Amino acid sequence: MISAVRGGWRALVERGSTRLAVVPGRRCCASAAARSHAPPGANRSRYVLATAAVGVALIAADYVYNEKKFFKAAKVGNIQELRKQIEAAHGDGKNSGDAGEGGPANRRHALGWTALMVAAANDQPAAVRELLRLGARPDLPEQYAGASATAATTGLHPLEVLQRREDEFCSAMNARASFLGWTALHYAALADSTTSAKALLEAGADPTSRDHAGRRALHYARDPSTTRDVILEHVGKWEEAAAAAAAEERRRFPLEQRLKQFIVGQTAAIETVAAAVRRKENGWADEEHPLVFLFLGSSGIGKTELAKQLARYMHRDDPAAFIRLDMSEYQEKHEVAKLIGAPPGYVGHEEGGQLTRALARRADAVVLFDEVDKAHPDVLTVLLQLFDEGRLTDGKGKLIECKNAIFVMTSNLAADEIAQYGLQLRREAEARAAQRARAHPAPAADTPTKQFDEKSESVIMSHPGDIEVVEAEEALQVSRKFKDTVVRPILKRHFGRDEFLGRINEIVYFLPFSRQELLTLVQMELKAWAEKARARHSVELRWEGGVLGALADGYDVHYGARSIKHEVERRVVNQIALAAERGAVARGCSVLLRERAGRVLLAVRAPSDKDYEPLDLAQL
């Protein structure tokens, strides 16, 4: 019997997991020690029991999750092994490799891919269907970024990464290339696996999903092929559904409403941009040319932020859909190559240009040319072709169609003239508002009122005159006469060509902030610092209403919201930092900002105190 057990032991060792092979050694040693002090019959029965326990442990070892076996099974289409490994993964109490992806079927390889991607890349439709049945998600993105990048992040040698990619994923693909963002459908398209593509699409795979290069699965399908036809059919359905959903969202949540959540003031500018975008989205615009804006106004007044929010609204926060180029980097003639790519034979030819690379990824992006007035005239010539034809030829001779893109240029040209004109419009509007107020006087309020701003957790002491209340602020409109006689000659003198200005759909004017808008900006800046103080230092920051007016007085029309930011840092943050350095403000304290004769003063309340005590920094 002992010989029979030993024969079974050898079979189990050959078949079982190597990590449990040390178990019988420990148990045999314990049995040998026990035999020296036990009767012969007891020794024999203990030996049999110990050997049986070892056999059970080794059989169970076959169901311990093994990464290599799991992905190998997906590669060769071994359905039984896939089921066994997923059951073992269920039993070990662990979830997928990445938090939030969920389920053993979605476990990632140590180098970034999933079993579903492996099955699709190796044309194993049966394995694809089984993995989907067992809970694999079809739209998980690939994390393999090429041998070099993956080696740098994992600490492996690049040759080892190459070998593992070929052995444990697919030997027919270039392991040196980056596959970031690929889905299983991308791999099925590249492998021309029609059955796998159908299974993935029926399971809800998104055929419009893009990889790190901005390409859909359709880009990698053979033309013509059945796989391409299947994907193309589903792309049409997804695009129709997405267009319907977007139209419904725009109806319920218009662009103006979105922009006004993030942009202070600038009502006329927001309405101008929203109207032009609405024409384009609803098919009431020239489809042969892209939409082009020129934003004019002082620095720090919301021009760049409006372009960012426009991209977020149109492309649902896709970072690749917003392209920002600082045109101060293109002041020399030779820097045109940096924009569209160097011609063949020149250094950097293979890299392409900054603009052409970005547009190749997202041809419908929102492109911001910041401070376009600083660019070289030859760069403007390239932009003229882009605006006029809606396409661009890069240094490699490749044509990039971008008629669906939106181009936004910002400039400080005529900023002083626009600022002075805006201030004049503000004065006229205030005079009309005062006249209406005299005609319809409001009830007098002689006593200060105490309010609590729950969102910012700030105490606001409002006195008459501290905060200007405007029920419906008048939207200021720039007159046609000012545009034609003041602004256009400045633009024409700088750009030197009418055809360039003629390709701009809308010139949008950003005017100086009103008093109410300045108070809003100060409130927003103080809220931001209150959140930082709470998160970083456990300090509660509060303020009285008069502080808003005192800080708003530091507004500089030439620097816009940046002047408010600097004023808060100079008059508030500097004092708090000094008080903290000298020990007057510690963790758990509350700081109250007060205004006295135009000055912003601090009052501090310790955690154990009930009242705020004025703080004189000069005495510290």
Give the N-to-C terminal Cα separation. 91 Å
Describe the sheet with the most strands: 5 strands, parallel
Give the full name of the CATH homologous superfamily of the largest domain. Answer: Ankyrin repeat-containing domain
* Number of alpha- plus pi-helical segments: 24
CATH level 1 name of the largest domain: Mainly Alpha
* Proportion of helical residues: 40-55%
Mean pLDDT, all residues:
80
CATH arch. level architecture of the largest domain: Alpha Horseshoe
User: Low-confidence segments, ≥5 residues, pLDDT <50?
Assistant: 1-38, 56-61, 94-100, 445-472
- Order of strands across the main sheet: 2-3-6-1-9
How many beta-strand elements? Answer: 13
Helix vs. strand class: alpha/beta
What integer value in Å does the Rg equal? 34 Å
User: The CATH topology of the largest domain, please?
Assistant: Serine Threonine Protein Phosphatase 5, Tetratricopeptide repeat
Strand content: 5-15%
Structural domain count = 4
Shape designation: globular
